[in-house]
Design goal:
By secondary structure, the protein is of the alpha+beta class. The protein contains two helices and eleven strands.
């Protein structure tokens, strides 16, 4: 009974430990001054790959002017006018907790954005929102176990994005591997204790 309790405690420690999941906020405050997120110098900002449907429509930064939308810091990210943008981390699943969104091209019209989240190319979540063209607002998702988030505009537009909250979620195989290792160490220790008792007799 005592051994079963110890095993359960070890497995809970592995799954619930800080190393098992880590939340980060991609706020674009520390992107180098060249202002390009998917340029060669910052292709992996925040551990993610940033891209779009057109190689010359790169993500760029806004720090002032009419398109700047104050949120938590002094920098937002946007793109040239296009219809699909994404950020991804293939092979490293994560949870999309939330993000702030706005739209550059308002001009009295609304521009819906379809948001898809997928794992290994299979769509797991999707929704459609119509962000404001004058304020940047937070949208909550809580989409777990994905490796890519894509924003698809039904008409060409320029979304503004900021403060993307993501939580790394380890692969189940990794959790089992670490848990198995801990259980193995537990077994070695138990055998050593039994051997010590036998030798003492």
């Amino acid at each position: 009974m005592r051994r079963s309790c110890a095993i359960a405690v070890l497995l809970l420690a592995v799954v619930g430990s800080p190393a098992a999941s880590q939340t980060q906020v991609l706020d674009f405050e520390n992107v180098p001054a060249d202002g390009l997120i998917n340029g060669s110098s910052v292709a992996n900002y925040g551990g993610f790959f940033w891209s779009s449907t057109s190689s010359f429509h790169e993500w760029s930064l806004i720090t002032s002017g009419a398109y700047w939308r104050p949120s938590s810091g002094t920098t937002n990210a946007t793109t040239s006018e296009l219809q699909s943008i994404w950020f991804e981390r293939p092979g490293e699943p994560f949870t999309l907790n939330s993000m702030f969104l706005s739209e550059v091209l308002g001009q009295g019209t609304t521009r819906p954005i379809d948001i898809w989240a997928s794992l290994n190319g299979e769509i797991k979540y999707q929704t459609s929102i119509t962000p404001s063209s004058t304020t940047i607002d937070q949208y909550l998702f809580d989409w777990a176990n994905i490796d890519r988030v894509e924003l698809i505009l039904t008409t060409p537009g320029r979304p503004i994005i900021d403060d993307i909250s993501v939580t790394s979620t380890p692969e189940p195989a990794t959790v089992l591997l670490v848990g198995g290792g801990l259980l193995g160490l537990f077994g070695v220790r138990q055998r050593a204790r039994k051997r010590f008792k036998t030798d003492a007799v």
